[in-house]
Amino acid sequence: MSRPAAEQAQVIVVGAGPGGSTAAWHLARQGLSVALVEKSEFPREKVCGDGLTPRAVRQLVRMGIDTSAPGWMRNRGLRFVSRGRILELDWPESSAFPAYGLTRTREDFDQLLARHAEAAGARLHTRTKVTAPLLDRAGRVVGVSTTGPEGRERDFTAPLVVAADGVAGRLAVSMGIERLKKRPVGTAVRRYFRSQARHLDPYLESWLDLRREDGRILPGYSWIFPLGDGRVNVGLGVLNDSRTGSMQTRRLLETWLARTPAAWGLREDGNADGPLRGAALPMGFNRLPHYRDGLLLIGDAGGMVNPCNGEGITYAMESAELAADVAGQALARPAGPARERALEHYPAQMAHRLGRYYRLGRGFSALMARPAFTSLVTQNAVRSPAAMRFMVRLLSNLTDRPGTDAMDHLVNALIRVTPSPADHAGRFAGAPSLRRSRSRVPG
Questions:
Q1: Residue 197's pLDDT is what?
Q2: pLDDT tens-digit map of 201-212
Q3: d(CA 186, CA 429)
Q4: Which stretches of the chain drop beneath a pLDDT of 50?
Q5: Cα-atom radius of gyration of the chain, to the nearest Å?
């Protein structure tokens, strides 16, 4: 069978998760020709807590998504549980963010966004796995090779490729952009349970005193997120660090669930709805640079999970919007130095927007890896509503800029005095570009 002619586009987006579909939507809205390539078929499951903070809701509203439509479950705020104490806090009032969060399963959330991008004009190709980047003689990415349904091979060509291919970052790795091993990585597991007692809860619940069987407090939290359809998303996330000792996440989840009231129904026998699933959380810009030789990294592919709270969807969507804006400006210029200068604006802007905040978050993660500090936080955090309001704004990145009250000003000042990371633009991070016409994607 002859290889079909390459499909041409102005931008290829690899991966139709929240980041990839958001990028494709913004690009298509600019009138650009976009190919959105996804290895799976929709609907498909994805490991996630299914919770969206007001910062993520803002992105949905910007895209014209009706968050009052069926399928969305609104929440008022957060409920914290620690050492037998309970504290409920509504989401902070803000001029920049709505005063509500959302939950929706990734099984249909991702499909909704992908179809939204398709309706805007992006060409969606499902069941199409990227096997290699296509490189020109100078080592610049000029497309991707794929294997589609029934093993059919096809090339897609474009002057720019957006990698939204998740935590493994296969396209980035193939270009010599490796993970920075000193940056934090977490592990999350989740499972669905049928729970009439909890599925309509107006708060997202987080237990801060996550413990091993021996009682040792760990750097992380467990959650119960209501879905409104008779189910809850139950899971936990922990920071991977040698100081915390070995962790078996399934056992941790079982230990925690045994602490919840039996009336909630969070037990494997009879109420579990589907298997336990887990995934890695690439945090704090743990893959750099975010642009190299025609390849832009967004979301998990660029290690963009918030190191303060493990939130990934928000930053996938925000980086996607920025990448689309930069791509539109760059492609309006002729190929060559002028276009490259425009594309270098992307990592510079990512550094400007989140570099200091993520460096602060990495410092917080390092402190949480110290058992004494973790024990102190879980023992005292819920005792003070004012302190927890401050922590919610800081850890969820929900301040107005410029600030509108004293708490905003304090959080913004703390971020401002954090030294800017010198390596974010990434001009010297990672290996030099590959000099081949085609490179296999590992794995």
A1: 97
A2: 999 999 999 988
A3: 22
A4: 245-246, 424-440, 442-443
A5: 22
* 367-385 as b/e: b if 16+ CB within 10 A: ebbeeeebeebbeebbeee
Q: State the CB neighbour count (10 A cutoff) for residue 120.
A: 18
| Residue 9 CB burial class (10 angstroms; 0-12, 13-18, ≥19) | buried
Cβ-contact 441, 147 below 8 angstroms = no
- Amino acid at position 51, single letter: G
State the alpha helices, DSSP H only, in 264-401. 268-271, 313-331, 337-343, 345-350, 356-368, 371-380, 385-395
- pTM assigned to the model: 0.93
Q: What is the pLDDT of residues 392-430, one digit of tens each?
A: 999 999 999 898 899 999 999 999 999 988 654 444 343
Q: Contact, 191 vs 303, CB < 8 A?
A: no
Report angle CA 80, 318, 73 to the nearest 5 degrees: 45
| Nearest CA among 26, 24, 7, 8 for reference residue 16 | 24
Beta sheet of 51-52, edge-to-edge order: 51-52, 101-103, 73-75
CA angle 426, 432, 436 (to 5 degrees): 135
Asked whether the beta carbons of 226 and 102 are under 8 A apart, the reply is no
How big is the CA angle at 30 (ends 156 and 127), to the nearest 5 degrees?
A: 35
Q: Which CATH number fits domain 185-282: 2.30.30.40, 3.30.9.10, 3.40.50.300, 3.30.565.10?
A: 3.30.9.10
Q: Break the chain into its structural domains and give their ranges.
A: 7-76+96-181+284-355, 185-282, 366-417
Residues 252, 217: Cα–Cα separation, whole Å:
11
Decide: 155 and 191 in contact? Cβ < 8 Å: no
CATH of domain 7-76+96-181+284-355: 3.50.50.60
CA-CA distance, 130 to 153, in Å (whole number)? 10
Spatial separation of the C-alpha atoms in residues 408 and 412, rounded to whole Å: 6
- pLDDT (0 to 100) of residue 247: 61
Write the CB contacts of 145 (distance below 8 Å, at least 6 apart in sequence). 130, 131, 132, 133, 134, 153, 154, 155, 438
Instruction: Report the distance separating Cα 97 and Cα 400, nearest Å.
Output: 8
